[in-house]
Amino acid sequence: MKNKFIAVVLLFTFSVFLGCEKEETTEKETLYVKFINSSASEYTIYSIQLRARGSAANHTTPTENWGANILQNGKTLAPGAHEFFTLEIPNLEWSEYRVGVIDNGNNLMLHEQVGFSSNYECPITHWGSDERTVEVTVKKDIFTGLINYSGYSDFAGIEN
Hints:
- The protein is mainly beta.
- 12% of the residues lie in helices and 39% in strands.
- It is built from 1 helix and 8 strands, in the order H-E-E-E-E-E-E-E-E.
- The protein has one helix at residues 2-20, and strands at 31-37, 44-55, 82-87, 93-103, 106-109, 123-125, 131-140, 147-156.
- Strands 3-1-7-8 form a 4-stranded mixed beta sheet, with no helix packed on it. Strands 2, 4, 5 and 6 form a 4-stranded antiparallel beta sheet that branches.
- It starts with a helix and ends with a strand.
């Protein structure tokens, strides 16, 4: 009887000890994004690359490298098309994106054009919601002849 009592006490103590251990989670914060190639765009997008920029409250110099294309398996976005992504962008931080388009059957990353200079740091911001709608318009610039961003939007929530 005494052995059973000791076994029960030890089992109870061991159970309490295991139950008190704090579990650490390594789950990353994510942002669910609807990315739209505007119907006003003149080009189909074949590549979207991201790089982290840090706190959404600050305009910081990038410290990360550009990531791989988030459009998987040869997916493209024609003007007016969209795709959904779950991106690892922590709350209150932002990333910028750059795109590649199909120009007369050739794949072209906009930033690789000779003389390319964009006035945009196209943002995807994890601010105000865990869902985001991002839209970009890509057109040929009538003054430079280069393909460039002619507009973008980035707002909380998913647009229908």
